[in-house]
Design a protein that fits this description.
Number of strands: 0
Order of helices and strands: HHHH
Radius of gyration: 15 Å
Number of helices: 4
Strand content: under 5%
Shape: elongated
Largest sheet: none
């Protein structure tokens, strides 16, 4: 059970890193994401996913991976909307910070998509 809790906390920290990477450039948060968040977002998310899946064979415990996958897909969608709105001149990003939106769009979309698609497990 400790592995599941650790995985959940790490996955949540990775998700929160992605939240800061998306909301800060759009001006919704006063934070300035540093290199640490760029590294921790995929690292913690992937390690958290792995520990959650390995730590329990019970499908009910895997429900957080579905929630995290869905949340990451929503963040990727928000990043895509922010990039489109910035490109159309509808939103002014803080500084030249579209790189973090691209980063979350690609990695959040891939990690979230894989996590959502594989979280159901294989049925015999």
């Amino acid at each position: 059970m400790l592995i599941v809790i650790t995985g959940g906390v790490l996955a949540l920290l990775g998700f929160l890193s992605a939240v800061v990477l998306v909301t800060a450039p759009m001006g919704w948060m006063a934070a300035t994401p540093g290199l640490t968040l760029w590294v921790l977002f995929p690292l913690f998310t992937l390690i958290g996913y792995g520990l959650l899946v390995v730590g329990s064979r019970d499908p009910a415990v895997r429900a957080p991976t579905r929630l995290l996958g869905g949340g990451l897909l929503l963040l990727a969608l928000l990043a895509a909307i922010g990039l489109m709105a910035s490109g159309a001149g509808l939103v002014q990003l803080r500084g030249d910070s579209s790189a973090s939106l691209w980063y979350v769009l690609v990695l959040g979309g891939v990690i979230g998509g894989v996590g959502s698609a594989t979280s159901g497990g294989v049925r015999a």
